[in-house]
Design brief:
With 222 residues, the chain is of the alpha+beta class. It has helices spanning 3-10, 20-29, 83-91, 112-121, 123-149, 152-164, 174-181, 185-197, 213-220; strands at residues 31-35, 40-42, 50-56, 58-64, 70-77, 98-101, 105-111, 169-171, 201-204, 207-210. The protein is 48% helix and 23% strand.
């Protein structure tokens, strides 16, 4: 096992304590893959062939409703795995959502056969898989709770502040914002017009400028 191979294992919390022979199996039977930005990595009706552990980049996992509306479920970042892929591998089911590379992505691809073998052989690997799985499921319940129970104006204010970070500029269309928040574009457009009426933001094509951060922050904390 090369030093480089060992290094990627140590980048994932929970894998660094793998038994030596399990580490050898994982390294020797997995491959490092690169995926360019905007690539559809998986989609509905397709069976997972690998568990991907992200080394760099970001993958957006989203659901498309029958009416054509996109809802972003979560993102997978470096040091993480995809809970939907894990669920499909465990249940031998096809994907019900799609995963898209938001940036150039580098990942370790663990083939299904290797995943099955290590789940059966290694308590440490099982703990790694199910720990990541349980954390993401908890996150998904929070997403459901927000969509079902939290006021849209509050969620939109929070999302604008999150996307802006330390700046006042948000590069996003109304459709993209709707997908982020799991609602219709018309709802976002109506709420943004209200924010603009209150002089909290200004809008131009594909961009939103925050001009009264304090107003948005007050609403976001309501």
């Amino acid at each position: 096992m090369t030093t480089a191979a060992a290094n990627w294992i140590d980048r994932f919390q929970g894998l660094s304590s793998l038994e030596p022979h399990i580490r050898d199996i994982l390294v020797n039977r997995s491959t490092i893959v690169s995926v360019p930005a905007n690539t559809v990595i998986f989609g509905p009706g397709k069976a997972p062939e690998n568990l991907l552990l992200l080394l760099s980049g970001s993958v957006r996992v989203q659901q498309l409703s029958e009416g054509g509306r996109e809802i972003i479920l979560y993102r997978v970042h470096a040091g993480e795995s995809c809970v939907l892929t894990t669920a499909c591998l465990l249940a031998y089911e096809d994907y019900s959502a799609e995963g898209i590379a938001e940036t150039d992505v580098q990942a370790v691809a663990i083939p299904r056969a290797v995943f099955d073998d290590l789940i059966a052989q290694s308590e440490t690997f099982r703990r790694f898989v199910f720990s990541a799985y349980s954390k993401r499921i908890t996150d998904l319940f929070l997403v459901i709770e927000e969509i079902a129970f939290q006021r849209m104006d509050i969620r939109l204010a929070q999302k604008l502040l999150e996307l802006a970070g330390g700046s006042s500029h948000v590069a996003s269309t109304h459709q993209q914002m709707a997908a982020e928040l799991g609602t219709a574009r018309e709802v976002i457009s109506r709420q943004l017009r209200e924010f603009q009426r209150r002089d909290w933001i200004t809008q131009s094509r594909g961009t939103i400028e925050i001009i009264d951060r304090a107003g948005l922050e007050t609403l976001a904390k309501a």
